[in-house]
Amino acid sequence: MENRNNVTVFILLGLSQNKNTEILCFVLFLFCYIAIWMGNVLIMISITCSPLVDQPMYFFLNCLSLSDLCYTSTVMPKLMTDLLAKRKTISYNNCMTQLFMLHFLGGIEIFILTAMAYDRYVAICKPLHYGIIMSRQKCNMIIAACCTGAFVHSATQFLLTIFLPFCGPREIDHFFCDVYPLLKLACTDTYRIGLLVIVNSGLIALVTFVILMVSYLLILYTIRVFPPESRAKALSTCSSHITVVVLFFVPALFIYIRPTTTFPEDKVLALFYTIIAPMFNPLIYTLRNLEMKNALRKVWCQKPLLTGRNQDNESTEVIFILLGFSDYPELQVPLFLLFLTIYTVTVLGNLGMLMVIKINPKLHTPMYYFLSHLSFVDFCYSTVVTPKLLENLVVEDRTISFTGCIMQFFFACIFVVTETFLLAVMAYDRFVAVCNPLLYTVVMSQKLCSFLVGASYSWGIACSLTLTYFLLELSFRGNNIINNFVCEHAAIVSVSYSDPYISQKVILVSATFNEISSLMIILTSYVFIFITVMKMPSTGGRHKAFSTCASHLTAITIFHGTILFLYCVPNSKNSWLMVKVASVFYTVVIPMLNPLIYSLRNKDVKETDQLSYFVHRNKENQSDEIIFILLGFSEYPELQLPLFLLFLTIYTVTVLGNLGMIMTITISSKLHTPMYFFLSHLSFVDFSFSTVVTPKLLENLVVEDRVISFTGFIMQFFFVCIFVVTETFLLAVMAYDRFVAVCNPLLYTVVMSQKCCSLLKPLILWERNKSETMFILLVFSDYPELQVPLFLIFLAIYSVTVVGNIGMIVIIKVNPKLHTPMYFFLSHLSFVDFCYSFIIAPKTLVNLVVEDKTISFLGCVTQFFFFFFFCTLLVTESFVLVMMACDCLVAICNPLLYTVAMSQRLCALLMVGSYAGVACSLILTCSAIRLSFRGFNTINHFFCEFSSLLSLSCSDTYINQLLLFIFATFNEVSTLLIILMSYVFILVTILKMHSASGRRKAFSTCASHLMAITIFHGTVLFLYCVPSSQNSRHTIKVASIFYTVVIPMLNPLIYSLRNQDVKDTVNKLMDTKVFFY
Questions:
Q1: pTM value?
Q2: 355: buried, middle or exposed (CB in 10 Å: 19+, 13-18, 0-12)?
Q3: In angstroms, rounded to a whole number, what is the distance separating the alpha carbons of residues 857 and 953?
Q4: Which of 145, 314, 603, 971 sits between 20 and 30 A of 1052, alpha carbons compared?
Q5: Between vectors from CA 755 to CA 408 and to CA 315, what angle results, nearest 5°?
Q6: Higher model confidence: residue 343 or residue 543?
Q7: Sequence-ordered list of residues with C-beta below 8 angstroms from that of 346, at least 6 positions apart, any chain
Q8: What sections of 568-639 are H helices per DSSP?
Q9: Nearest CA-CA partner of 941 in 932, 933, 931, 951
Q10: How far apart are CA 877 and CA 914, in angstroms?
Q11: CA–CA separation, 375 vs 172, rounded Å?
Q12: Cα 696 from chain centroid?
């Protein structure tokens, strides 16, 4: 035993030592492995979903395909990995495991081929007794005997090898672990063992081969008296099997029937029975078998992959209708927003947890390894259920196909069972960490952790396959109403027309076993943990131990409490509403809570900040900030100006062309088809993609400083990647659209439905309202004598707004002293002010001097959308002012840490977060599009303000008013709360200052910001944070002028007249010649 321990790792020499040959072999074997999976899975599904499953021959063929898959999978993954790896090693334990599984599955295949030969013998030689002899019970017994015989054979082979001592060379001249290459490496006399191997492997293969040949000789002898047609049919039935037998047995006999010697040719011959035979089996049994070809056509060409069956066992189309929460129509929109928020938190939380664990080396421990898999399972589980739930909350067609329903149940079941045992594994991990801390790294080795996680996934797949199989055995008819939002087992069984007793018992046994076994592991682990913790003399130690387990206990309580409530009772006495509410917990809520529980209660996770990690890494690597220099076409200085003009022209054409295409498609109702729907999105992607790249390219052609910051570089790459990948798949989708239009023109509108092209519906509704509805903006038409003075006043204000805000952006850009966080936020504030003033003011000026004050529904909604897109009132400007308040807080309260805290990357992230408020715009705009209007509608305002639209609608506006109230109140309360807290801390800090000049300077720094906040938020609170405003329209119009016209003008004046740095820059620019390149 000591000698054997000298070798813990073997080196597989593989097929070749030539790198080019290995790459070629990798590509070849990859295609072979894919073909093996596709072919054998195709056969299994075709047989299972057709009447052939009741015939013994195809029952054995089904089992043969399954054994082929498993047999090949013991060799191929390791072989392909070694073809690309530099070190082709395999551990002693893995080598022995591969040897056992290889001979076990190979033995099963040999015995199944023998059973198939016996089946053909009975079918041809004793056709009248075939149904009695080859009954299903007899077939099951034969398969059980095959597995038993294979296990005995493999266990014998394993025991002959496991006790061999290995103390010398480690190189196995093969691509997998087999007996003869291992005997060659053993440092003992292997003659007797070699003889036993020949008896165990070679003679078994020889005897079975002889039995096969005798069977076929008897078959040939029997059919000699058959008519020619019957002889041809019998030979055709057997020819496929004979071909497979020859491919498998001849190479195996050549290798195992001879003495214990190895030849270089053995590796090539081994390819036949490990790769080639499993790959050709599906082809042989389909191309040479008429019944299989008919079954393939029936299953794959004439009906969906999975269909329900009626009571006569004939395939019919089955549809399920998920009622969800349709009993409460008034809650559809609030529930949609709630579940959308939960799903967003779930995705961000779990993916964030995966990223945090990945980037921090401190978290590369067993506990966080299991936690990363738990996060992955939660993400997948939520993604299986929630998107369909969200869709059903906003559409009227709540149907799901039988295939979709079964697939949803299949994947949901996998992830539920996997999560159950992952939580048990994590409990065991905590038991070892608390009760055996000194042996923790030894016990919870990487190999054991991988095995535990792999076992959890494998058991989840096995349970899901079993339960899904019994569901497929049930019968359904036509449309079936499921009183749930997810395809849950009890709900599916309740609409079945066949007896669901077996299916109910199977899930009862499965759920009870899973719950009891996992809970026993968890409870046992925590009993020992509790005893160990209570024995600790240190209070701090006990507190730390309990704190370590608290997160896990919280997750277990929520998860298992819900599961026990739902599944461990044969016939639930709970109402469907209770079942649905409980289902929400483990399908939607728990995947969101897990990352929050493990992050908020875990110091290691909280301390892992990706931003600080990157900053820390950059500081360690180099002291300077990372800068990239884009050389572009700098090697050709004489071409800079011509290239600038060329690219400027191209970019102009790109912008005008793509925006023109979008506008043309939007305006013309004839173009509201799937083809032009995809084309409009392609134009949007092209416009966005070009806008990400071209402006920087144009700038680099006319300036000498061609640098780009690390943040800018990463952000540019991020958006380029988004648009490139999106365009790739959009082009593929357009190709599919053309395929349907040309190949199936009569079914085009059915296949390319509105549900398939989900955003087509809003476009159609938009056009319908646009063509029928016009709005008249009264502006200040009640005062005709003021039209001209108001025009001049607003024109002057708009001119000052444009010049002031653009000037502020230019001043901040050209003065390096103003490249600070405060002025970074100020430049974005100026940009936002300019944008929304540009949207409102021009139309107002036009309406003051013309008699036709109409605006189309399309124009009105577009104006409203872009008003909120830039989020100048409720989102972006609100949060920009919050960022500026936080900036002042850090500058005054922590001046020494200002540059570290308000880093360039943090500022960029904060601004991106502010612009992300476009979600509010999309939700409110979509809710406005759904409103109904008739004919001409008079808006007593100077722009399309949301409450004005609501007052003119012919449909119920309760949801719209509720959404507006919620968004406005939430944004105002949250932003004002942050601003007030910031200025409380600022005030306390200033009052503690001993210097009067210091206090004066601090107050001066904040004065501009306070003035802008007062004007802005005072107007917003006056207008929007009341559900039904009691103000007169005249008062509302005057108040609206402040935040649409006056505030965008005042902001640059406030920040320039009260700011010495800005005034100095203006004076410097006026005294200096400015060159334009």
A1: 0.45
A2: middle
A3: 12
A4: 971
A5: 50
A6: 343
A7: 378, 379, 382, 386, 588, 591, 592, 595
A8: 576-584, 590-600, 603-607, 610-621
A9: 951
A10: 8
A11: 40
A12: 32
Which helix (H) or strand (E) covers residue 1034, if one does? helix 1033-1041
CA 668 vs CA 508, 665, 672, 763: distances in Å:
58, 6, 7, 10
When computed from its CA atoms, the radius of gyration of the chain, rounded to whole angstroms, is 37
Residues in CB range of 987: below 8 A, 6 or more apart = none
Whether 774 contacts 936, CB under 8 Å: yes
Instruction: Let me know: does 884 contact 979? Beta carbons within 8 Å.
Output: no
Distance CA 816, CA 1065 (A): 10
Residue type (1 letter), 670: K
The secondary structure of 269-330, three-state, reads HHHHHHHHHHHHHHHHHHHCCHHHHHHHHHHHCCCCCCCCECCCCCECCCEEEECCCCCCHH
* 789-795 CB contacts, 8 Å cutoff, 24+ apart: 790/848, 791/845, 791/848, 791/849, 794/841, 794/844, 794/845, 794/848, 794/1045, 795/845
The rounded distance, in Å, linking the Cα atoms of 912 and 917 is 9
Q: What would the two tokens of residue 393 be?
A: 């909350």
Distance CA 594, CA 371 (A): 9
Let me know if 278 is exposed, middle or buried by CB neighbors in 10 A (0-12, 13-18, 19+): buried
Bridge partners for 775 per DSSP: 855, 937
Cβ burial of 1034 (10 Å; 0-12, 13-18, 19+) is exposed
Q: How far apart are CA 526 and CA 825, in angstroms?
A: 52
Q: Which of 768, 769, 770, 761 is nearest to 673 (CA)?
A: 761
Joined together, the tokens standing for residue 253 give 């006999």
Q: Is the dihedral of CA 724, 725, 726, 731 positive or negative?
A: positive
The pLDDT tens digits for 600-649 are 555 665 555 444 444 444 444 444 456 777 777 777 777 777 787 788 77
Q: How far apart are CA 1062 and CA 294, in angstroms?
A: 82
Other CB atoms within a 10 A radius of the CB of residue 242 amount to 16
Q: How far apart (Å, rounded) are the C-alpha atoms in residues 686 and 957?
A: 37
> Residue 366 contacts by C-beta under 8 Å, 6 or more apart in sequence?
429, 440, 444, 449
Is the CB of residue 1016 less than 8 Å from the CB of residue 877? Answer: yes
Q: Any bridge partners for residue 315, and if so which?
A: 309
Q: Residue 632: left if φ>0, alpha if ψ -120 to 50, beta else—which one? A: left
What pLDDT, on the 0 to 100 scale, is given for residue 418?
92
CA distance 28 to 18: 15
| CA-angle at 180, arms to 178 and 184, nearest 5° | 120
- Position 127 pLDDT exceeds 80: yes
Is 236:285 a contact under the CB 8 Å cutoff? no
| Secondary structure class of 488 (helix, strand, coil) | coil
Asked if 781 and 853 touch (Cβ cutoff 8 Å), the reply is yes
Q: Which residues of 173-197 are buried (b: 16+ CB within 10 A; e: fewer)?
A: bbbbbbbbbbbbbbeeebeebbeeb
Residues in the chain: 1077
Q: Which residues pair with 10 in a beta bridge?
A: 90
DSSP-assigned beta bridge partners for residue 953: none
- Is the pLDDT score of 560 beyond 50? yes
**Model confidence band, residue 945 (pLDDT cutoffs 50, 70, 90):** low
Record the tokens describing residue 157, joined without a space. 């082979």
Locate 755 and state its tokens.
């549900």
Tell me the C-alpha distance between 180 and 259, whole Å.
9
Greatest CA span in the chain, whole angstroms? 121
Amino acid at 267: K
Amino acid at 712: G
